[in-house]
Automatic annotation (TrEMBL), chain A:
It is found in: Cell membrane. This is Sugar ABC transporter permease. Residues 91-283 form the ABC transmembrane type-1 domain. The keyword Nuclease does not apply. It is a multi-pass membrane protein. Belongs to the binding-protein-dependent transport system permease family. GO terms for biological process: transmembrane transport. Keywords: Cell membrane, Membrane, Transmembrane, Transmembrane helix, Transport. GO terms for cellular component: plasma membrane. It holds the Pfam family BPD_transp_1. It comes from Streptomyces griseorubiginosus. Gene3D superfamilies: MetI-like (1.10.3720.10). InterPro entries: MetI-like (IPR000515), MetI-like_sf (IPR035906).
From TrEMBL, chain B:
The keyword Electron transport does not apply. Coiled coil: none annotated. This is Lactose transport system permease protein LacF. Belongs to the binding-protein-dependent transport system permease family. CDD domains: TM_PBP2. The gene is lacF_12.
Amino acid sequence: MTQVLDRPVELKKTPASPAERTARRKALLEWVAIHSLGIAGALFFTLPFVFVFLTSLMSDSQALSRDLIPHTWEWGNYQRVFDTPGFLTWWRNTLVYAGLGTVLTVVSSVPVAYALAKFRFRGRNLSLMLVISMMMLPPQVVIIPMYLFWAKQLGLSGTLWPLIVPMAFGDAFSIFLLRQFLMTIPNEYVDAAKVDGCGDLRTLLKVVVPMAKPGIAAVALFQFFYAWNDYFGPQIYASENQNAWTLSYGLESFKGMHHTDWNLTMAATVLVMAPVILVFFFAQKAFVEGVTLTGVKG
Amino acid sequence: MATITLESKRRSPGLAAKRRKQALRTIAFMSPWLIGFSVFFAYPLISTVYFSFMHYDGFRPPTWSGTKNWTYVFEHYPFFWPALRNTLWLVVVMVSLRVVFGLGVGMLITKIKTGTGVFRTLFYLPYLAPPVAATMAFAFLLNPGTGPVNSILEKVGIPAPGWFNDPTWSKPALTLLALWGIGDLMVIFMAALLDVPQEQYEAAELDGASAWQRFRFVTLPNISPIVMFAVVTGVIQTMQYYTQPLIAGKVASGVIQGAGTQFEPGYPDKSTLTLPQLVYNLGFQRFDYGSACVVALVLFALSMVFTAFLMRRRGGLIQAGD
């Protein structure tokens, strides 16, 4: 090992001063230490995925053992998950909830964020503070009256509508993130559009929205993930009707249906994780930008 | 300001009309949120206060019960204080470990020079795993019977804990799950670390500062607002901590949703109870909507205290207007 480390120094034609040598060796050691830590970290972060995936391919009997690696690779487990009654319905429900919810959220939040970022009006700071308060509020705080409203007054329990409809009225987190993004667009662009005779709506649609595409993409992604991951909402409104379940809510029932067969439960777990991770790979930049935008900028 | 407004109003009626138009424009653009705020926030919040003083089971009409729900929750409901103690434990241990670990991972990533992108993506991915799926995965990984973690620990000769099946280990297991999903903090700290002026490091190095001194006197003062932000949002997230402890308890206990099953949250031995779970337990399992609203208000008060703290912070969430 030392030999390998020393070689670049020995190969040098002009003899390096002792001080230079120690500095070089120190830098190399640091490189090795940092990358060893990096590899240890990578193992910590990826091994759970690896074990879950390996278990999802085990046979029923092997899943009851303490083996780490499948003897036979049972790809059919995934077919069995898809064949589980309800699974495809849950998949469809999740797409409706996440897709429709995302569209409604973006359409309703953009104008609000624009007003908060670019209009001057009394109560603007108060509105912004209320938006932040709503964003930080656990959904459980208002769930009792909300449930009574949707279930007892409108008779919509057993559906996902109580979760989708509110998204047409602005989502606090999305408004906040978009507002932060729109603050970074110079006012000159808005003013120039006004001078050119654009009305407010035209300015928003023709000038601001095209410039805010990265922010809108981040909001859409977050909202999609939110709906995909939501457990509490479907638990409150959809639990009584299996046909309205989402993947996140239905996933848990695999453990019950298949008793202690971890292999099928883990196959279902992989199928719930996979789409989110795929979406991330296609939209990595927008996503990371969104995380930093809500966190650091201020 | 006021006099100017009055004067201009008097002088040109055109300006007043313009003002009215602008107010209408503001209301039009704000309208989705104005409706959302009233219907999904203000009204239910007032309603929650109202129900907290009523006896209501969802079948018979609500009747006034004074402070009965409040005394029930604080004095007789067996889950309230354990849930509050658990929340305190999570705030002290989980939040601080997450901040320290997030900062450490962020620093590591900024130091890695070979394959940075690959490392960053691998470190970030667990944060994306849907909470239910991630918790199911950890319930499997850590299960004392066939879980890979305990298999490995026993092979190495380390006594394997009961994790989600043992009241003393269930919260550490949840903490492990939370550290696995450190990606959000990692990205935030990474951005903050890259913003630290490089000259300050060079100056410190010239003065002969050690690595620790450079961290203590250059890095930390520069990123302290972000550390603060991470702590406060961590506390707020802990108030909302719901899905992970609930699923972990459910899966470990073996009680699974379905017709006729009722899961008492907190398995094992109330050790995974959190406040949001109490709202569900009281409202949707015990049909005691009044007491559920009491817990909801406690949750509201705690969340608002920390949110106010976040907003008051200098250079906080709200950017100064134009």
